[in-house]
Write a structure and sequence with these properties.
CATH architecture of the largest domain: 3-Layer(aba) Sandwich
Strand content: 15-25%
Number of helices: 19
Radius of gyration: 40 Å
Number of strands: 13
CATH topology of the largest domain: Rossmann fold
CATH superfamily of the largest domain: P-loop containing nucleotide triphosphate hydrolases
Shape: elongated
Distance between the termini: 29 Å
Largest sheet: 9 strands, mixed
Strand order of the largest sheet: 5-6-4-7-8-3-9-12-13
Number of domains: 2
Helix content: 40-55%
Structural class: alpha/beta
Length: 512
Amino acid sequence: MPGYLHQPDAPLLAFSSHDAWTVEDSFSGVQVFGMTGSGKTSGSAQAIARALLQAGYGFLVCCAKPGEAELWRRYAHECGRASELLVIGEDSEHSFNFLNYELCQGEGLQAISNTVALFMKIMEAGRLNKEMPAAGERFWDDALGEMLGYAIAAIFAAYGRVRLSDIVQMVSSAPRGRELQDSGWRERSYCYQTLKTAFENPAQALDPDDLNVISDYFLGTYMRLADKTRSNLEITLTSTLRPFLTGRLRKLFCTSTTVIPELSHEGMIIVLDMPVKTWHQDGIVAQHVFKYCWQRATERRRVRADTRPVCLFADESQFFISSYDMEFQSTARSSRACTVYLTQSIAAYIHALKTQYVEDTVNALLTNLKIKIFHLLDDPRTCEYASQRVGTSVQYRSNQSNQSNTSVNEAESSGGAFNYGKGGNNALASHDNWQWGQSSQDGYSRGESYSSGQSWGLQETIDSELRPDYFARYLRTGGQANAYTVDGIIYRPGQPFGLTGRNWLPCQFSQT
């Protein structure tokens, strides 16, 4: 295999002229948020994928959309790693028998316990994006886990291998009522004959005390279960295993093994070409199976300072998250593993998981993915989350006002009078007496006043450095209109960026 970067301070990707994302940084995980069309896949995700490919990381890639496998073929070719690409899908020649694989990862009951844990993850994946489980779901999970554990242990002890059809047959042929006393039934019953072989001629001998516990379960506890309880357990089992009993999942996961997760530890790029958009629930469950086995294998490997780093990469990661991710990511640094998840919003995670304490579960996952990259968002909750991550600071807000007033008063008045009179006395003499008078007056007044004022102030306040609406309005989404440039805000807690001196950094990603 070609060389790879393993030194902790080796730079992988330049976020700015002063800030590099290093090998050591990658083990803290990356969570990318961005609405559909924000440019997250062609922007930051492309940059990160290319950087890790060029650094020689091994990969497990989960696919949600048709065409993702082709995208990774192009990435691998452009980064000189086409020969290391290994695609598992409907038309591929590769397969992975997960049941035989898990049974080989330990000894005795430990291997069986690991296998039961895998089946419970299959059940969890089957519930993804469905309604929240009922309050009594935990009882059925525990009861099914107990039944699976005893069935797998009995079959493995008797025959040294386990097939899914064997598990179904073991459970369905367990005794009911008085069947155990019927010699003909004992000859026909797969369950009884398996227990007999495990005691008398085992392929993988178990401790006699363990065998007694297994036998007591099927010939006692399970036999005495109420018909409704037993039927519910059997229906749950068959519905869980159904996707793997026929068709393409049987071919890929229940026949031979040509691919194991450990190949990525040697530098292979394993792409699970089972897109959710065309494979639907089968695609989700199948990829969860391989992902869980890969996570467990990565945690088991012996790590030295020069061990090759590996990456779990999932676009539309809401289809692939599980409760185990928190446990895996909490020790990813010691496993030299990088997780890169992309999704549209926090709401997508909450909708997918639907566990009893879903918000705590989602918060734990996000806490363990240290680097956050925010592209354009349209979910208010995620916008608020991004703003809170960026944080607050002391900010100064200035205010200024100007006032002016002008008033003018004018008044005008005028007036006048005219008097006329005439009189006479004809007794003594004839004469006339005239009187006449006239007067007039005018008046005018004017007044004017003017006033002006100005005020200025500076207010100190603590506020968000980037308000929630910033993430919904001001980040470019690439394309020709934006010169094929995608904007993002990178958040890194506890380690300020050299360029800004803050825990967040505006960054541009090229789509070309």
